[in-house]
Write a structure and sequence with these properties.
DNA_Partitioning_ATPase, AAA_dom, about 15% strand, Rossmann fold, Chromosome partitioning protein, alpha/beta, about 40% helix, about 280 residues, P-loop_NTPase
Length: about 280
Amino acid sequence: MKRAVTLWSESGGVGKTTLATNTAAALGRRGADVLVVDLDPQLGSLTDHVGYGELKTGDRDHLGDVLLAEDRDASDLVVDAGAFDLIPSHEGLANIESEMAARGTNLREFRLRSALTPLAGEYDYFLVDPPATLNVLVDNALVAARDVVIPIELTRKGSVSIDGLEDTLDSMQRGFQTFDEDFRLGILAVVPNEVGDSNIYREVREQLETDGKPVTPFGIRKRDVLKQAWQAQMDLFTFAESEETRDLRDYEKDLLEQFETVARVIEEGSVEAATPEEVAR
């Protein structure tokens, strides 16, 4: 499988799905073939963001069916979301853990990886957006996409959450190594999200850098235009080009540059691809 990344945080409300949507769009607009897998059955997931919310309900084939049955083809679920392709989420995923337990599903954490492997030749990048809650969907995301991009609040709580996430990833890595001794999980980048100007933001960033965390040299600010793009069911790049949209202000255009930079981090596999000079604001 080509480069696959999970965007994950154990904390909700940190802009994970917005980051995933716009990073995927940035990669696609850079000429890459991108497949996004939405594993979050809750309302307000990436599937809703890009206008496919109707696929999350009803009696139709969905990703849960693929995870439960090895003979199901994930490619049948793919829809065109503009700059990237999408395997949409479905409300049925909320019960996937109990269904796997009832069926005695073997190697249940590896089901998504197995389902995506036949698609490896069609895509340059796979981005997986799981729910924040630790469960079998997160396990599947991390097994399928072992590089993790973490959005974080630049607060004391956010700083502590990174340490907790590292402990969680270390524990998962040791557990999965019982099946595959070469299994590795790693944090590719920590992306400060919904950033403001107070001293606490600067202090937490400095502490993260001192601790050697792979934090990007910029933070994505909380802007109303991100909510407006969501309401329009578009990624920010498409929203900015829409005929109904006013021209973005300069400080809003900075968001586009920052999502482009996160895309470049994924392309090059290192947070060093985001240099302070290129993204300084």
